[in-house]
Design a protein that fits this description.
Aldehyde Oxidoreductase, domain 4; seven-stranded mixed beta sheet; globular; 34 strands; about 750 residues; single chain; Aldehyde Oxidoreductase, domain 3; alpha+beta
């Protein structure tokens, strides 16, 4: 059946990828193309005294060298434009770009960049976010200069300290939160820390820019091409329509491909040389100078009554934002997931504060579920600590406090639909929560909730010869299966076979407007836009069939790729779609979905819970994750194989975050030199995973679909940490949970008399 989403699907882009025909930005070439490379700062904070490119200019193959003075005052960013495309007065982190070279080969460009001589006058560096907030701390961005930074989306908030990038505070309930805490039977305070981590996409940032003919054409790994066009235009002071952006296939994203790093420099080099210019970051550059996950310090305080019900909750998260805020997309310039501590629970009085801070370290950006890995690790570990203090089973404490339909969560989100309790019940049954475990083995759980982001997306559909339908979109495919969702929803909406649908991706100069991929909104927005467009096109196809067959429109229906013609006194006649409209022409049909204006577009939440069984070696601290159960609240599943792949992939991603991955920064320098040092999980690291899907309940997408992309990763870490505590009494206050950290926690627990 055309609208039977349970059938196995073929990935729209699958053949191109497995045969090697798919092209990524790093694969692209252009006649006369040059390569770009950079001279980067070796110090975290300094004034630039002088730049001498003489030796580099003399090299064979070098066609142009530009420095900050050549491009001043061009800065870039996603919302706040505070990052100079080349530093012109001072550098603010190790890896900041000082000069750029265009050469005939990549090797020549790299060698020339290494021969550029830069003289620095070093300044005091601030390498810790807490220190950066102290009175008298060195100011990283002068307030007068910062007042001139472009900010997309209104007026930037003012803050009491010049080293604050952005902040957001939510207060609900009693005005005097201390009065609420005073009534609590028990209060728990804890501090947690989270490291910098890299998205570890296997395709580095890459771009090819051609301004040789005057027009600006950009091919980029950026997953939001229309936003990139807008951002570049704002940086340059030109109209967006003067720039055309295309996005080839993207080889992994995980949040890192929303910020583009090299397009404006390549544009400047292209204008200087009259040639297209290409840049592909190395993995060392990715780790040292791109936009990794923010490090964080998370302080939580929660009060409960004698029955274990939450009364008051206070959190303060300080994110290390690095030298620039350019990588953040949210209007308050924070990692928004930081506001999700205790989000799935009812708490009458809350005070949530998130602050993002400038430091002289690599600029922070978005990584899968930005801010949530840090916040959920802390808050779900915190919930288990409260349960332990009260002598309650962690499952029971959660059951007493979870949001239910009609409740408001800790961060102020209203839950007209809330399946948290159902998810917990399903998890308890599937994981055999009460079953006894061997010595030194523990079971831990975690609960989290997420809503998809919003935006506006348009779709165009056209009938082409042969009875096929092209669905034109500006949404890139960065690996999650968005184009397959588009094809399946189009087929269902038009009642035609899926293989009759062809998804066509175009650049910003011809494609309909698209919000881009990110914030788990891909299925939500594109499916609704496709369904709306199909609802316009299908009646036109029926009218076309009626005209061709010489019958009244109400005598024709289209279902299962077949036109059914019913005339009075005769048996229904069936004809294939191609037989009736194979070579006809129908004007293109455009449709859109805008979550901000549709009356029924409230983004439905999705809940997920984990239970992990972990064995701990008390002598070494080595932990063995033996079995994991995931229970998840789902809507209609449009793309079943990819849906499960997202859940499994989200789990493995969360596993790496929890036990392996850390971007080590020493004296401002990223010490993790490459992916050989930055350990990500492989198949051999993944334990058995049991996935339990609740019976579908309609979500916000077309046909009741819900988001799944970023849902499954954040709860892995706290479930494992809570299992470690159950196994040996050691409570971990940071991740990744390396053997060394687990062993130190065991030793501390023994000293405190908590070890089991």
């Amino acid at each position: 059946m055309a609208n039977d989403f349970v059938t196995a699907e073929t990935r729209v882009e699958g053949r191109a990828k497995v045969t090697g025909a798919a092209r990524y930005a790093a694969d692209l070439k252009a006649p006369g193309m040059l390569w770009a490379a950079y001279a980067r700062s070796p110090v975290p904070h300094a004034r630039i005294v002088a730049i001498d490119p003489t030796e580099a200019r003399a090299m064979t193959g070098v066609r142009a060298i530009i420095v900050g003075a050549d491009v001043r005052p061009i800065r870039f960013g996603r919302r706040l434009f505070d990052w100079p495309i080349l530093a012109w007065d001072r550098v603010r982190f190790i890896g900041d770009r000082v000069a750029a070279v265009a050469a005939e080969t990549r090797e020549a460009a790299v060698e020339a960049a290494a021969r550029i001589r830069v003289t620095y006058d070093e300044l005091p560096a601030v390498l810790d976010a807490t220190t950066a907030l102290e009175p008298g701390a060195p100011v990283i961005h002068d307030p007068d200069e910062a007042a001139e930074y472009t900010f997309i989306g209104g007026e930037r908030d003012r803050h009491p300290h010049p080293n604050i990038q952005g902040a957001r505070r939510i207060h609900r309930g009693e005005t005097d939160i201390e009065a609420a805490f005073a009534r609590a039977a028990h209060v728990v305070e804890q501090t947690f820390r989270a490291p910098r981590q890299h998205q570890a996409h296997l395709e580095p940032h890459a771009t090819l820019v051609d301004a040789s003919s005057g027009a600006v054409r950009v091919a980029s790994t950026n997953k939001t091409p229309f936003l990139l066009r807008r951002q570049m235009a704002a940086s340059l002071g030109i109209e967006p329509e003067e720039i055309a952006v295309t996005t080839p296939y993207i080889g992994g994203d995980f949040g890192g491909k929303g910020l583009s790093l090299d397009e404006l420099v390549c544009l400047a080099l292209s204008r200087a040389t009259g040639h297209p210019v290409k840049c592909v970051m190395t993995f060392a550059e990715e780790l040292q100078a791109a936009n990794p996950r923010h490090g964080a310090t998370i302080r939580l305080r929660t009060g409960v009554d004698a029955d274990g019900r939450f009364i008051a909750h206070q959190s303060r998260i300080v994110f290390d934002g690095g030298a620039y805020a350019a990588g953040k997309a949210s209007e308050p310039l924070i990692a928004p997931g930081g506001l999700l501590t205790l989000a799935p629970y009812r708490v009458p009085t809350v005070d949530l504060e998130v602050v993002t801070v400038y430091t002289n370290t690599v600029p922070g950006g978005h990584m899968r579920a930005p801010g949530e890995a840090q916040a959920v690790f802390a808050s779900e570990s915190h919930v288990d600590r409260i349960a332990a203090d009260l002598g309650l089973d962690p499952l029971e404490l959660r059951r007493r406090n979870v949001v239910r339909p009609g409740d408001t969560g800790a961060n102020g989100n209203a839950y007209h639909v809330a399946r948290a309790a159902e998810v917990l019940d399903a998890l308890a049954e599937a994981s055999a929560w009460s079953r006894a475990l061997p010595p030194n083995t523990g079971r831990g759980m975690a609960l989290s909730v997420r809503r998809p982001g919003g935006g506006r997306t348009r779709i165009t559909m056209r009938l082409v010869p042969g009875g096929r339908i092209e669905v034109v979109t500006g949404a890139p495919e960065q690996g999650v299966g968005t184009h397959t969702v588009i094809a399946r929803v189009a087929a269902a909406g038009l009642s035609v076979a899926t293989d009759r649908i062809r998804v066509v991706v175009e650049g910003t100069d011809t494609a309909p407007l698209d919000a881009g991929i990110g914030a788990s909104r891909g299925t939500y927005l594109t499916s609704r836009a496709v369904a709306a467009t199909a609802a316009k096109l299908k009646p036109r196809l029926v009218a076309l069939a009626a005209e061709r067959l010489g019958v009244a429109v109400d005598a024709v229906s289209l279902t299962d790729d077949t036109f059914v013609v019913s005339t009075q006194g005769a048996a229904p006649e069936r004809m294939t779609f191609a037989e009736v409209v194979g070579n006809a022409t129908v004007p293109d049909v455009a449709g859109e979905f805008d979550s901000r204006t549709e009356p029924d577009s409230e983004a439905a939440p999705s809940f997920v819970a984990y239970a992990a069984e972990v064995a701990v070696d008390r002598e070494t601290g080595v932990l063995d994750v033996r079995r994991v159960t995931l229970a998840v609240d789902v809507g209609t599943i449009i793309n079943p194989i990819a849906h499960r792949g997202q859940l499994e992939g989200g789990f493995v991603y969360g596993l790496g975050t929890s036990v392996l991955e850390e971007l080590v920064i020493e004296d401002g320098r990223v010490a993790t030199a490459g992916l050989n040092d930055y350990k990500i999980p492989t198949a051999s690291d993944a334990p058995p995973l049991q996935i339990v899907l609740l019976p579908p309940e309609p979500g916000s997408g077309a046909y009741g679909a819900k988001m799944v992309g970023e849902l499954a990763s954040s709860g892995v870490g706290p479930a494992i940490a809570n299992a470690v505590a159950a196994a040996c009494g050691a409570r971990l206050d940071r991740f990744p949970m390396t053997a060394e950290r687990v062993l130190r926690a065991i030793e501390a627990a023994v000293v405190d008399g908590q070890a089991g």
